[in-house]
Structure formats: C-alpha cells, structure tokens
Amino acid sequence: MFSKACEYGIKASIFIALNSYQEQRVSLKAIAKEIASPEAFTAKILQDLVRHNIINSVKGAHGGFEIDKKDIANIKLEQIVRAIDGDKIYNGCGLGLETCDENHPCPVHEKFIDIRNGLKHMLETTNLQELALDIKTGISFLKT
Q1: What is the pTM of this model?
Q2: How far is Cα 101 from Cα 91, in angstroms, rounded to an integer?
Q3: Nearest by Cα to 13 from 79, 112, 63, 62
Q4: How far is CA 47 from CA 14, 43, 65, 97, 108, in A?
Q5: Which among 85, 77, 89, 90 is positioned nearest to 11, based on CA atoms?
Q6: If you average pLDDT over residues 87-100, what whole number do you get?
Q7: Cα separation of 132 and 142, whole Å?
Q8: Which helix (H) or strand (E) element contains residue 57?
Q9: DSSP assignment, residue 101?
Q10: In this predicted model, what pLDDT tens digit does every residue of 30-81 receive, in sequence order?
Q11: 132 near 116, Cβ under 8 Å?
Q12: Is the Cβ–Cβ distance between 41 and 8 less than 8 Å?
C-alpha cells in the first residue's frame, strides 16, 4: 500500500522519536541499520522529512536526527506519508491503473473507496507518540 520509501520513512520517524524521548540524536548510519535500508536511500528519505518539518537535522560532532519531544504527539502518520508519497494513496487506483475514476472504474473501484477512507482515517488519527510508546512498552515491534 505504501511505497518502500514511505515504509522506511515511517520506521525512521518512529526510531527517531524513541531516541528523542531519551534526549538522544541518531545518526544516518544508525537509522539505516535499524530500519534495514541503504544509507543513500535513507538519506533522501530523511531529507524529505526534514524539508516537511517532521524531523530535525543537527550538524556537527554531536549532530544527528531528532524530533522535539513536545512535537512527537502532534505528528500524524498522514504527514509522513504525504511528505514522502504525496497524496496518491488517497487518489490512486486500487489496482494501480493509470485511469480509474467514477466514470471509468476498475473492477475494485467501489470496494477500494471504503478501504481508502479507513486508511485515511487511521493515518490522520495515529500519531508518532502512540506508535513509539507501543514499541517502548513491547506492545508492538519495529524489527522482525
């Protein structure tokens, strides 16, 4: 459903949030290792997240990536998805067809509307804080 870049962006944001709660910045290398993504690809994803004010980048010897603790609860998954994948998840065809709309629907068009609306609701109501806390308490996991 999400692009690989978006999956990595969500994982990276959660990992950065977890470390930010402990007052720690994380390096590109540590993030790439944690989310099992190539460093160069991870760097591009992190640039998008910085550009959209989701994470912060600090240069220098004690630099790295962080999120201000007071902002973690306000960052919704929708912001991360939009920063990386744009709005195609809300408008794209469920089968990936180039042309799919009310006038020219694909075979799953009507059924996919409900799925898309549910996904949109989940992305708009889920924040980084709850995801990070679920990982911290062992309810969910970031790695297999």
Answers
A1: 0.91
A2: 9
A3: 79
A4: 16, 6, 10, 30, 35
A5: 77
A6: 85
A7: 9
A8: strand 56-58
A9: S
A10: 999 999 999 999 999 999 999 999 999 999 888 999 999 999 999 999 999 9
A11: no
A12: yes
Tokens of residue 24, six digits: 């720690």
Q: Which residues contact 104 (CB under 8 A, 6 or more apart)?
A: none
- If residue 129 lies in a helix (H) or strand (E), which one and from where to where? helix 128-136
- Give the span between the Cα atoms of 74 and 71, in whole angstroms: 5
The tokens describing 140, both together, are 């969910």
Which residue is listed with tokens 């709850």? 130
User: Domain coordinates of the chain in residue numbers?
Assistant: 4-136
* Tokens standing for residue 28: 């590109």
SS3 100: coil
Tokens of 34: 């944690």
Q: Can you give the length of the chain in residues? A: 144
Quick one: how far is CA 84 from the chain centroid? 8
Can you name the CATH fold of 4-136?
Arc Repressor Mutant, subunit A (1.10.10)
Q: HSE on the CB side for 65, CA within 13 Å?
A: 27
- Between CA 61 and CA 68, with CA 63 as vertex, the angle to 5 degrees is 155
Token digits of residue 41: 């690809």
